[in-house]
């Protein structure tokens, strides 16, 4: 069965995010004052799996082994 | 009034995405065969604006002037 997973990967709370800080600063220079800027990455994957549970396990594995760094990232898997 | 905007930025359809292709390939080497891999960036911004319409305009401006490259990216603004 073909599954679509939407995986959101973001830095854990409290982690420094220099890229977001740079963007916030650049926006300020353009006249856009933001109280906060956060960023995250989304991966949309299509893959075959036997069941919904199996698909979740596969997506978990992909996150743990490649997509996210569990030390600094939180990830969220949504099967569509 | 404080607004929260969630801005999703992704490559336009048909644009080559070498980063996603590399991830797809790396997943394959780990034993995860994906039919397709797409990625997008999300920015979560908090900023002050007079009205909802004004907040949308501000977010549009930030996308056009900094966050997205309108030649290769599509963006989607959602006020929360």
Characterization of this structure:
- The structure is a homodimer of 80-residue chains.
- Chain A has 80 residues and is an alpha+beta fold.
- Chain A has a single domain (2-79), classed as 2-Layer Sandwich (Mth169, Chain: A), CATH 3.30.1280.10.
- Helices cover 35% and strands 40% of the residues of chain A.
- Chain A has 2 helices and 3 strands, in the order βαβαβ.
- Chain A has helices at 18-29, 52-67, and strands spanning 2-11, 34-48, 73-79.
- The first copy, chain A, has a 3-stranded antiparallel beta sheet with strand order 2-1-3.
- The relative contact order of chain A is 0.34.
- The A-B interface holds A 2, 8, 23, 26-27, 30, 32-48, 58, 61-62, 65-67 and B 2, 8, 23, 26-27, 30, 32-48, 58, 61-62, 65-67.
């Amino acid at each position: 069965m073909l599954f679509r997973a939407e995986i959101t990967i973001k830095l854990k709370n409290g982690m420094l995010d220099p890229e977001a800080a740079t963007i916030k600063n650049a926006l300020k220079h353009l006249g856009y004052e933001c109280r906060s800027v956060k960023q995250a990455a989304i991966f949309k994957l299509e893959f075959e799996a036997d069941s919904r549970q199996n698909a979740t396990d596969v997506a978990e594995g992909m996150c743990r082994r490649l997509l996210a760094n569990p030390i600094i990232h939180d990830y969220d898997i949504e099967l569509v």
